[in-house]
């Protein structure tokens, strides 16, 4: 079933969903099941699986010199989606990126997904890789998420890349896109970012999943701004708890989001006690989740980062 159908069917009730990352180097489906098994009792109708583009690392060669090498650290998104659907009977949502794919390769992936009865995808651009100053599209690939949305939408209409093929089956993918309550870091301002997000919706995006945030005001304000410019699709808050002291700086650095003063003060008060830092982060996330649920959001999407114990505690307190 489509993710958006679940929102409709829920009739105002807040659903729960999770995001998992493929294990490093295909390291066994068991780690995915170990993360998800304890979370399935909360009945998520869908689970997202991230996609990870190849990365550059420096590796010593035979002569002891360091060379820039391309590695694929977390492959297996499509296989994991299929395994999730088989084991739990829920929808799996693969993340699709512009970066790393030609349009033809994207078409192949979409055809595979269609054969596998995967009905939902989250269409994303992807980030610049380490050692790149900004995102560079793969030659023959898409530059922005909107271009990927258009390709998927075209396939939903039976339009494939090669116009000579007349029997391209119509697919029926439900397309999700990303949104940024605190603005995408490359956008010159919030208005431009919102207009470009609206363009993704007009091109075929049917729901938005947000970047993580730690201050619900940012999300509620984002909802208002979206409504004002005419975005009326479901906007799913994506959140995760802060659980380690170093995340006070790493989260803003990697995800370009703010840590509210109140949270950072509470964390710093107990900074020498790892358990207490985690407690503060979990309590904060529970509070955030309860407020979001009380506000009637369509779904709360948890970024699990493989830590099912923590996410389970939060879900138990909220759902
Ligand atoms: P876009 O919508 O293409 O926007 C990128 C930037 O370009 C924005 O600043 C936007 O304002 C601007 N822009 C858009 N269109 C145009 C245009 N036509 N002209 C000029 N500027 C334009 N990354 C991964 O690698 N793997 C994942 O699995 C993954 N999952 C994610 C899930 C969620 C819910 C979110 C929020 C992010 C995820 N990301 C993932 C990170 C994402 O790839 C990055 O945030 C990336 O920098 C932007 O992706 P996007 O799809 O929002 O890009």
From TrEMBL:
Report what the protein is called. Answer: Methylenetetrahydrofolate reductase
What organism is recorded for this protein?
A: Membranihabitans marinus
Q: What class of enzyme is it?
A: oxidoreductase
Q: Which InterPro entries match?
A: FAD-linked_oxidoreductase-like, Mehydrof_redctse-like, MTHF_reductase_bac
| Reaction(s) catalysed (UniProt annotation) | (6S)-5-methyl-5,6,7,8-tetrahydrofolate + NAD(+) = (6R)-5,10-methylene-5,6,7,8-tetrahydrofolate + NADH + H(+)
Q: Which UniProt keywords apply?
A: Amino-acid biosynthesis, FAD, Flavoprotein, Methionine biosynthesis, NAD, Oxidoreductase
In the record, the note on similarity to other proteins reads: Belongs to the methylenetetrahydrofolate reductase family.
Q: Which GO terms describe its cellular component?
A: cytosol
List this protein's GO terms for biological process.
Answer: methionine biosynthetic process; tetrahydrofolate interconversion
GO MF, one example: FAD binding
**NCBIfam families in UniProt:** fadh2
In short, the EC number is 1.5.1.54
Q: In which pathway does it act?
A: Amino-acid biosynthesis; L-methionine biosynthesis via de novo pathway; One-carbon metabolism; tetrahydrofolate interconversion
Please give the Pfam families that the UniProt record associates with this protein.
MTHFR
Provide the cofactor list for this protein: FAD
């Amino acid at each position: 079933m489509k993710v958006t159908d679940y929102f409709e069917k829920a009739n105002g009730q807040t659903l729960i969903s999770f995001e998992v990352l493929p294990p490093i180097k295909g390291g066994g489906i068991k780690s995915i099941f170990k993360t998800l098994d304890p979370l399935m009792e909360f009945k998520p109708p869908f689970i997202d699986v991230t996609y990870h583009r190849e990365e550059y690392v420096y590796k010593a060669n035979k002569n002891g010199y360091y060379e820039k090498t391309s590695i694929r650290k977390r492959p297996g998104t499509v296989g994991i989606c299929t395994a999730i659907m088989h084991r739990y009977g829920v929808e799996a949502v693969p993340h699709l990126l512009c970066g790393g794919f030609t349009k033809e390769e994207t078409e192949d992936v979409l055809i595979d997904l269609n054969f596998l009865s995967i009905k939902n995808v989250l269409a994303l651009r992807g980030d610049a890789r380490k050692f790149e100053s900004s995102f560079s599209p793969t030659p023959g690939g898409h530059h922005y998420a909107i271009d990927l949305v258009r390709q998927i939408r075209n396939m939903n209409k039976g339009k494939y890349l090669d116009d000579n093929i007349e029997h391209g089956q119509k697919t029926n993918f439900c397309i999700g896109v990303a949104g940024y309550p605190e603005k995408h870091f490359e956008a010159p301002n919030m208005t431009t970012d919102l207009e470009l997000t609206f363009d993704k919706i007009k091109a075929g995006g049917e729901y938005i999943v947000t970047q993580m945030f730690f201050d619900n005001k940012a999300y509620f304000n984002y909802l208002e701004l979206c409504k004002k410019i005419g975005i009326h699709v479901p906007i799913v808050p994506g959140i995760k708890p802060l659980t380690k002291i170093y995340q006070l700086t790493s989260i803003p650095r990697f995800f370009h989001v703010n840590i509210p003063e109140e949270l950072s003060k509470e964390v710093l008060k107990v900074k020498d006690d790892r358990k207490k830092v985690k407690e503060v982060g979990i309590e904060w996330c529970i509070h955030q989740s309860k407020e979001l649920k009380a506000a009637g959001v369509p779904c709360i999407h948890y970024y699990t980062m493989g830590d099912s114990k923590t996410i389970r505690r939060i879900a138990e307190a909220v759902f």
